[in-house]
Amino acid sequence: MEKTWRWFGPKDKITLPMLRQIGVEGIVTALHDVPNGEMWRKEDIAQIRDMIAACGMRWSVVESLPVSESIKFGGPDRDALIESYIRSLRNLGECGIKTVCYNFMPVLDWARTDLAHPMEDGTTALYFDYARFAYFDIRILCRPGAEADYPDDVLRKVEALDPVMGPEDRHALVDSLIVKTQGFVNGNISEGDAAPVEHFRQLLSLYDGVDRAALRANLVYFLKAVMPVCGEYGINMCIHPDDPPMQVFGLPRIAGSAEDIRFILNSVDDFHNGLTFCAGSLSAGAGNDVEAMAREFAPRTHFVHLRTCRLLGGGNFVEAPHTAGRVNLVELVRIFEKQGRNLPMRVDHGRTMLGDEDKGYNPGYSFHGRMLALGQVEGMMCAVRDELARGCC
Ligand code: DNO
User: Residue of 130, 235, 287, 320 with fewest CB within 10 Å of its CB?
Assistant: First the structure.
């Protein structure tokens, strides 16, 4: 696999020369300043590509070329938005950038209740607490009928949180769930939004009446529309799984299980319609056998995210060190190395450590934590390549 790293563009405090020093070969980035839905211009793409090349690396993967909400819920302007998406793909293809990650999660991209959960060793990690998540839904968002979506024990935990959640805790929860994790990935809600909860409610209402079947149909519609330009330029689209892989806030989600992924790949059975194998997102689903999924979907995987969660029971999970979660990442490295396609791979997320805390990095995207994880995964890759060269795996 190709060692890649998610870089947030020229404003990122982690610079390209720093990445070169730690052995990164390919960059994963996007035109972060272009508003969602607008076409990516060829000159802007070429400028970033050349900036990366000047530092001895290549722009390997776009993460993400965001899919507008209207394409997902099937709004009246979806064809115009798909047309703009196709133009962006064409411009990327002409600039030689051929792996495009996107997701089809309505409104909310990834979600965590705590972005700096203290670990025993002094680092912090991303954390998901199901009861706090439900507390946001029921007590802050006040979504009608929300209670019906949670089991009794979680509802009891929500009641137990009532006396302990002060205004600051409530504010921090809103910030973690719908502001900090979202602003830099899809721009639906960004820092500085005066009324994020109200804004979030309006976004949710766009999906009134859109169920799983409708969302699936809208994804297939989108994929069929973009496949011709992908075929023309050899672009591989790769959908990112839902994170966490479960229904949230009454919204449909359609990319969280083996059955979901099978449906997506089979509905548009084209090599260019592929998967971002995000081991970490999939590992948060208790029902997912992540290694079996990697074996099944490797031939249609175009981009790999390596990390793993530790499940804590009751729907809670923490992002574990890359060597110590529920997924055996060594086996995943074996599966993807055997593909022989030098698949771009980035370590996903990382703990916050050794001075990362006050640098203002995007949550999950620390420098030292990710560098340690990259070193660990690089070690796994060396060992697996050695095994393969000796013909012993
Ligand atoms: C979070 C990321 C996601 C991912 C998008 C891809 O850290 O893995 O935000 O980039 O879902 O579209």
Answer: 287
**Matching CATH number, 2-110+207-389, of 2.40.10.330, 3.65.10.10, 3.90.78.10, 3.20.20.150:** 3.20.20.150
Q: Is 137's C-beta closer than 6 angstroms to any atom of ligand 1?
A: no
How confident is the model at residue 177, as a pLDDT?
95
Total-model pTM? 0.97
Atom of ligand 1 nearest to the CA of 363: 7
- Residue 366 zone, left/alpha/beta (φ > 0; ψ -120 to 50; rest): beta
Distance between Cα 40 and ligand 1 center (Å): 19
What distance in Å separates the CA atoms of residue 311 and residue 305, rounded to the nearest whole number? 18
pLDDT at 191: 83
The residues spanned by each domain of the chain are: 2-110+207-389
Among 69, 103, 242, residue to substitute to test ligand 1 (most atoms within 8 Å of Cβ): 103
pLDDT number for residue 259: 98
Q: Looking at ligand 1, which atom is closest to the CA of residue 349?
A: 7
H/E element, 127 = strand 124-128
Binned average pLDDT, 10 residues per bin, the chain of 393 residues: 98 97 98 95 98 98 97 98 98 98 96 96 98 98 97 98 97 95 78 90 96 98 98 98 96 98 98 98 98 98 98 96 96 97 97 96 97 98 96 81
Ligand 1 atom with least separation from CA of 105:
11
Question: Residue written as tokens 């670990």?
Answer: 119
For residue 88, report the distance from its CA to the centre of ligand 1, in Å. 19
181 lines ligand 1 (CB under 6 A): no
Distance of alpha carbon 368 from alpha carbon 373, whole angstroms: 9
Collapsing DSSP to helix, strand or coil, 346 comes out as strand
CB atoms closer than 10 angstroms to residue 165? 18
